[in-house]
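lol so apparently i was supposed to do this last week
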Amino acid sequence: MSKFFNSIYKGLEPYTPGEQPQDKKYVKLNTNESPFPPAPGVIAAVNAREAEDLRLYSDPELKPLKAQLSETMGVETSNVFVGNGSDECLNYAFMAFGEDGFAFPDITYSFYKVIANLNQITMDIKALKPDYTVDVNDYLGDKLPDGTYTGIGKSIVIANPNAPTGIAIGLSDIARICEANADHVVIIDEAYVDFAEDGTSAVELIPKYDNLLVTQTFSKSRSMAGARVGFAIGSEAIIQDMETLRNSNNPYNVNRISMKCAVEALKDTDYFNKNCNLIRENRKYTKLALEQMGFRVLDSQTNFLFAESDKVKGADLYSALKDRGVLVRHFNDPKITNFNRITIGSKDEMDILLKTIREII
Ligand SMILES: Cc1ncc(COP(=O)(O)O)c(C=O)c1O
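anyway here it is w/ pyridoxal-5'-phosphate bound
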């Protein structure tokens, strides 16, 4: 640390991204990327003509992408915010709506804690239930005689489905949380929603709840993690607040090529549906095979499984897999230290994973 570093950031613990090793080629099942390439239209969009246009700034109003998102998501363009990955959307939402603090589960996407610290936002961390599900009652406050709830007096962020557990809560629970906390923003982070068995997004609740903000990403189901595009859908007023912050920080936050690619990705619904189905099939196949080997595998609605074995400790399995060229994600948090998070890849990758685990155990 230099002596010049602003003292407010001195204790900051940055986010630890999953490994992106360069030493050898791994079967890479550690950062929930897609095993499939982006849609053909996306690949065609990355051409010399587009490269020539890089001399020009990108559209600060993100018009074509907002228009396509509004069509795909069934909302107005004024309900859409676009970020450099959904991480950026989340950061602006924390900045904009974190004045009274943010509540979120203890086991969830670790970036929430990082952005809360970055923005000096207080945190109210709620334990998951022993079965690793979100306890919705923790987010309602006290029950009043008329059956309504007081709310918890702060904003809320819930990844749904949650990461790294993969478990989802239903839309009726999300509605209850929004209703109880009408004076605060409720963020539902749907990075993985497209892989859920029913695939139902909380976006449909937005007309009813002006405090609901839903974030999604192109990084997972649309195979574009490297393009860095994410978006948020919410009431016009909430989106305007986030736009105020974006335009005060980086109005050209999404580059020209990524923006073009994102539009093309949205247009190809057949390719998108086909890939989401393949991930669901491979998830089912892998979960069953792991269970047959004695693993406990949580009920995942995502493109990863969270699994623990009674035969080998989580950290040991992670290391043994890595030595054999298979990369999964292990977390040091004692509550989940026996688990590993395994991204669902292609059928071939899943077979390599399963064969390697059989050898190890
Ligand atoms: C729950 C959750 N939310 C958001 C993100 C961020 O995604 P991105 O910034 O790539 O859109 C991730 C990435 O892994 C995630 O797991």
